Amino acid sequence: MYIAGLRGDTLAVAVVVLLCLSYWATGWLPDFLVSLLLMFLLATCTSLGATVVFSGFTSSAFWLVFSGAVIGMALSVTGLGERVASRLADHCGHAYGLALMGFAAIAFALGIGMPSTLGRIAILTPIVLSFCDRVGLVQGRPGRTGLMLATALASCELSTAILPANLPNLVMAGTAETVLGLRLGYGEYAVALVPTLAIVRGVVLVIVARRLFPDRLTMRGGERADASTAMNTAMRPDEKRLLGALALMLTLWLTEPWHHIAAGWVGLGVALLCLGPLRLVNPDAFLEQVKLAPLWFVAAIIGLTAAVDHAGLASALRPALARLDLAQMSTMPAFLILVALSIALTFLVTSNAAPALYTPLVPALALGAPLSVKAVLLAQTVGISTIALPYQAPPLVLAMALAGVGIRDATRYCLASAAVALLTVVPLTALWWQIAGLLHRAAP
């Protein structure tokens, strides 16, 4: 890396990141220990300062983990989560595969109306866990892990096919309009990406979850009758109070463009309501049950992203990337190179930051390339939606923290689904774009 031109803080951050990512990927050390090691090394081996290294603790995402734990406990204590899970069990509780497909579809559908992956995961996670308890997927069952990971990864990956559904898409669209003068339309974007990045990738997530975490639902007839009875009973006052708090939270999340209050602060406010005036969660009981390890993990991931940005690691790589010459390649190799480039960038700077590095390179990459400028731009969506390791998608880290999913299981699932996606989603995307007339450069 020194030969490649990295110096000072840039080189130190690159070494520390590679070291800690190797531990996270292999599971040789506990997650929280690697998280603390990352923050220690960045604080002592670089001059970035505490503001950058420990920025995770001031991030709204960190407090969204905390608030998600409070809201999840409130859903359990009041029985509202059980009520929702009972209704879902009526529709998806007949078979494990059906449940996987149902929650993947719900995660995608929520992306249409809720443009925050963190928000979708904060809402879905306690509902999925309640559903698992309802259908016999108790703690330790592989199906519980499979259902949680499939829902979380669907929330992250499938939303890439909806233009305003996540942060990477918004970064890409905003940068494209500024740098290229290219405005992406909602409809044309969906036509280009939904068939493969949503439908095909959703099928991949379900199939891989069934193979890696085989299980079956075990809810018996008596339990179904109890669930039906519970669902038809009137809501208790505490359920109504929680429902009102959740409605307020969703309203504030959806109206963020007007009031500019981040999702984490909204979630923290609702969590305080649950712990205080609404009397939904006992503070002492919460302190006994809360686990700090997931909070360290989230803080470390956010600090890692900030360190990469402030140390200029992405900027140091930009000159080498800009020299990538596609003019001598045919259409398919050029497309595959662009997808590989976008995947590599998600490893370096996570999926949230990758579009900010890739999109400004589009004019240089498209010069003489056998692909249309729009194809060069959109090729990155295939890469940023291919999550091979959990740290690449901060919202997935949030889901793991809320659900108590281990790094080893998450890594296995991400690697397997990414491998299958490379063999299916990537070539089918190229084929679909060719049919739609998006892939080739227009004749002069």
From TrEMBL:
The keyword Chloroplast does not apply. The chain crosses the membrane at residues 6-25, 32-54, 60-81, 93-112, 118-135, 147-167, 187-209, 240-255, 261-281, 293-317, 329-349, 361-382, 388-407, 414-435. One of its GO terms (molecular function) is transmembrane transporter activity. It is found in: Membrane. It is a multi-pass membrane protein. Keywords: Membrane, Transmembrane, Transmembrane helix. One of its GO terms (cellular component) is plasma membrane. PANTHER family: BASIC AMINO ACID ANTIPORTER YFCC-RELATED. This is Sodium:sulfate symporter.
